Amino acid sequence: MGKKVLITGGTGVIGKHLTKILLEKGYEVAYLSRQKKSIPSVQVFEWDIQKGYLEEGALDNLHFLIHLAGEGVAEGKWTEKQKKLILSSRVDTITFLTNQLKVKGIKPAAFVSASGSSYYGEDTGDVKHTESSPPGNDFLSYVTVEWEKAADQIAEMGVRTVKLRTGVVLDKEGGALPRMAAPARLGFGAPLGSGNQWIPWIHMEDICSMYVAALEDESWTGAYNAVAPNPVTNEELTKQICKALGKPQWLPNVPAFALKLVFGEMANVVIGSSYLINERISKTSFKYTFPNIEAAVRKELQEN
């Protein structure tokens, strides 16, 4: 049996893709889940941070720890209750794991935590951000800063810790791409808001490869902008979606005020602009499979 990788949030879209890659590479994969499930080739351990419960054996023979758990930020309007859930699902889970590792005297070889491109702010216009840029001061920025602070608790144990500030992950099975493609399939593809806002995107294959690189390459440590090297505007992404589907782009743009009426504060997620530069990734040996948006969208949407 290969080295054990324990994943929180493993049943999410990224988790499923990453699990397949890890199993193919010979790793032993285990999940932490709030419910006992039967998943082929994966051992599932229950946990409940509210009750302080972690199933016996979850941390046994642990080599790598990956944290993907987190309430979706685009799952509903941001009520105060939803905001607390978005924060606690990312932060409290890591704090709980840190305490469990300390109690059991277990020290994994590496800890890789998801983080967000929203670290720099929900809407930062045309300002270009590298990993050394300061954080923003809005809700998602606050969540991401606290998320990374929680990850640093494990780093303080002497565990090599990597934080991947992830942009919009392009995948046909979930996330933003299917939602944007749905109206385009009907011939109603349109940019959102001004269409000029920058989108820090990355293809699913590349983000999963980054997780593997972060596990295996001991030179990786700290925060990385986990985005493709060529950011695009919302209008360009819409254009490529329509092109891949063989559909016309419908005008005019969906106005920002309409999006705010429907989504409330959460509308900032889709109309905000964020220009991230993958400065630290570019200095590693990592090679992108999909560095350009046209090929990435075509791979996911083009029907054969």
Give structural notes.
The protein has 304 residues and is an alpha/beta fold. It has one domain (4-236, 238-301): NAD(P)-binding Rossmann-like Domain (Rossmann fold). Helices cover 38% and strands 19% of the residues. It contains 10 helices and 14 strands. The protein has helices at 13-24, 80-104, 139-155, 176-185, 204-216, 234-245, 256-263, 268-271, 279-282, 293-301; strands spanning 4-8, 28-33, 42-48, 53-54, 62-67, 110-116, 128-129, 160-166, 168-170, 198-199, 201-203, 222-226, 232-233, 275-276. The protein has an 8-stranded mixed beta sheet, sandwiched between helices. Strands 7-14 form a two-stranded parallel sheet. The longest helix has 25 residues, at 80-104. The two termini are 38 Å apart. InterPro entries: DUF1731 (IPR013549), Epimerase_deHydtase (IPR001509), NAD(P)-bd_dom_sf (IPR036291), SDR39U1 (IPR010099). Belongs to the NAD(P)-dependent epimerase/dehydratase family. SDR39U1 subfamily. This is TIGR01777 family protein.
The overall average pLDDT, rounded, is 91
- The gyration radius over C-alpha positions equals 19 Å
Count of alpha/pi helices = 10
Largest sheet: 8 strands, mixed
- In angstroms, what separates the terminal alpha carbons? 38 Å
CATH topology: Rossmann fold
| Percentage of residues in strands | 15-25%
Sheet/helix structural class: alpha/beta
Low-pLDDT ranges: none
CATH class: Alpha Beta
Going by CATH, the homologous superfamily would be NAD(P)-binding Rossmann-like Domain
> Count the strands?
14
Total number of distinct structural domains: 1
